[in-house]
Structures are given as C-alpha cells and as structure tokens.
From TrEMBL:
Its EC number is 5.4.99.27. Residues 163-309 form the TRUD domain. GO terms for molecular function: RNA binding; tRNA pseudouridine(13) synthase activity. Responsible for synthesis of pseudouridine from uracil-13 in transfer RNAs. Belongs to the pseudouridine synthase TruD family. It comes from Steroidobacter denitrificans. This is tRNA pseudouridine synthase D. GO terms for cellular component: cytosol.
Length: 378
C-alpha cells in the first residue's frame, strides 16, 4: 500500500528543496479564489452566488444554503471542493425558485452563516457542475522559512518558466491517508464505504495513488516534461488528448512552450479507450494490483491527466518579519536582528483545474507534503 507519508519522498523535478517552513498557521495564510473562466449569464432559472468562506468546508456550506433557501441539498451546485481551513471565494448555484430572492435577487447579499457570507449574486442559466471551472488563484503566506533564499528565488523563476510535476497532494488522500486506506480495504473485501460521498473519495484516492506513482517514475527518468514516442499528449487548459506514435520537432517545440503536455492515467476500465495505454503505465500499475483491479471492477472509466501543470502569473516576495512575544509575525520590515525576526515568503499564482498548490510548494520546501494544506478537489 502507498502510505501517505511517502508523498514527501516523491521525486522533485527541479532539484532538492530550498528549505522548510511553517504552512497554514491560520486560515488567512492560504487564500484561494475560484477561477470559473466565465461570467454569469444574467438570466435563467438559477442564481450564481459568490461566497467568501473561512473555517467552513464546501459540503457544509452547501447544506446551509439548502436550509436557508428551503431546497434539497442536491439542488445546490458547486464546481469544486474547498478545504475548511482557508479563506476561499467560491461560487454556488441555487434555483431561482428558492425561498430567498424570488422578488429581488439582491436579498441574497444579506445572507451569511457561520464561516461564510454571500458577496455577489447574478442570474445563471445552468446549475454549476463538478469540474466546471478553469482553475484557482492562490495567495500563500509561508512563515519561518529556514533555508537558502537565493536558491528558492531561482527555483521560483524555473517553475514560472517550466511548470511543475502535476502530483496529487495529501488532501486527495484524506486526513492521515484515510481515503486511500478505505479504498484498499474496500477493494480487498474488508470494508464498504458508508455512503456515496465516502465512496467517491476512496475511488479518487486510489486513482491519485497510481497516477502519482506513474508521474514519480517519469520525474525520476527526466521525461515528465517532454513527449516520448507512444505517449498520449494533452492540450494545455483542455481535456483534449491525442496519441503521439512518434515525436517530431513540431511536437517537441509545442511541449517546450507548454502548449501540450504528456499525460498519465486516471486508472479505470479501458472499455472503448480512444488510445492505447503506454507500457510504462501498465508496468507501474502492476505494482498496485488491488487498486488497479478494484477501480476497473467498480466501473471507473479510464481518463487522462497532464503530468505537468503550468503555474501562471507567479509572483513572490521575501521579507524579514519582526515577531511578537507569541512568536507570530506582527509586521513586515527590513531588519537585521536575526534573533527577533523570521523570514516570510508571500506567493501568488494561478493553477489549472485539479492542480494542487502543495505540488508547487513541494518543489520549494522539504515539508510541503507533510503538512495538511487546503486544496481544491474538482
């Protein structure tokens, strides 16, 4: 079985870590803004609500919106899951026939609850579906960095140009790896998920484990960011894939420009699969027969995910922060007293749908995959 602790040993693409730091000390250290990639229709039978939430997970907020609107929770739509321990701006849809906003949709702007508030509302034709987003924008505060700041800056410049291995982060596997452990027990006939949500989390964790193992092999051999003969390529920012029997110079250049990427398997049954699976992927999956066979048996459809993720609009600042008596930074300032200062790093970047911020941090720090950080799960 793939233990969650092994995530920290996944090979890095750009060299060893630049240091270690404290992550997500408070929710404000991790801010995520959903990037839907479209504007509200301005008409239709649904309302698109933008919420700001803190200390509240997506499923809990959906239940509260259903209660307030007097609708069934299945009528509440959202594109992805956002973790509780973060500050997030996220969109939901509710039917326009809800108990609030029938006469004036602006009534929703007065709606709030424990850990969330509605900050915008507009009419929308369709309910939001899972995965119906382009990506997420992140602002992350890294506290108490100890390491080589010059190396870290060089690594950030490389990431901005070349992207990162598109690993699934710890959040996909659940707290202490419980989602993956459940999948193992379920597929071995030892336990059955108690409900549809738990079943979905277990299936996703099993697929993520095989994908990470394939990607780790490609990173180790240096081919995670280049096409090889027999690969299946994916178009950047799209679900479009195509087979690459032989790599030519045009495809090599498109890959160098991050226009296309090699892909890896989201394991499942291959019935009607449009392209043959590369042999390396079969070899890696054979190391995890319980997961691979269980996913196929449960009828999961084989899909593809890019091995590389583009990190867009990446900016950063590195500052010295004076600490108060509790040890928390109180203000940013340029100082030299190392006994009363800590190094802080502020990062901002955009990732495509399904990519994990921890995969970015893993290329920088040696403890990014050890600490549970909030993530999006499409």
């Amino acid at each position: 079985m793939i233990e969650p602790e092994s995530l920290s040993h996944l090979p890095r693409a750009h060299g060893g870590p630049a240091g270690r730091a404290r992550l997500r000390t408070v929710p404000e250290d991790f801010v995520v803004r959903e990037w839907l990639g479209f504007e509200a229709d301005g008409e239709g039978d649904h309302l698109l609500l933008k919420l700001r939430k803190r200390g509240a997970n997506t499923l809990w907020v959906a239940k509260q919106l259903a209660r307030i609107a007097k609708i069934h929770v299945r009528d509440v739509g959202f594109a992805g899951l956002k973790d509780r321990d973060a500050v997030a701006e996220q969109s939901f849809t509710v039917p326009a026939r809800s108990a609030i906003g029938r006469d004036d949709i602006q009534e929703w702007l007065a709606v709030s609850g424990e850990g969330f508030e509605v900050i915008a509302v507009a009419r929308q034709r369709r309910k939001l579906r899972r995965g119906a987003l382009r990506g997420n924008e992140f602002e992350i505060l890294v506290r108490d960095f100890a390491g080589d700041a010059a190396l870290l800056e060089a690594r950030l410049r490389t990431i901005a140009l070349e992207g990162i291995p598109n690993y699934f982060g710890p959040q996909r596997f659940g707290h202490a790896g419980q989602n993956l452990k459940l999948a193992q027990a379920w597929f071995a006939g030892e336990a059955v998920p108690r409900d549809r949500t738990q079943r979905g989390f277990a299936l996703s964790a099993a697929r993520a484990a095989i994908f990470n193992a394939v990607l780790a092999q490609r990173v180790a051999e240096g081919s995670w960011n280049r096409l090889c003969d027999g690969d299946i390529a994916g178009l950047d920012g799209s679900a479009s894939i195509f087979a690459v029997p032989v790599v030519d110079e045009v495809l090599r250049e498109r890959c160098r420009q991050l226009d296309i990427h090699p892909t890896g398997p989201l394991w499942g049954a291959e019935r009607g699969a449009p392209e043959p699976m590369p042999s390396l992927e079969r070899q890696v999956a054979a190391l995890y027969p319980i997961l691979a066979q269980g996913l196929a048996r449960e009828g999961m459809e084989a899909q593809r995910r890019t091995l590389r993720a583009r990190v867009g609009e990446l900016t950063w600042s590195i500052t010295a922060a004076r600490c108060d008596t509790a040890g928390d930074p109180a203000a940013d300032m340029q100082v030299t007293d190392t006994q009363t200062t800590k190094t802080q790093i502020r990062l901002a970047f955009r990732l495509p749908r399904g990519a994990f911020a921890t995969a970015v941090m893993h290329e920088l720090l040696d403890n990014a995959f050890i600490q549970d950080m909030p993530e999006d799960q499409e």
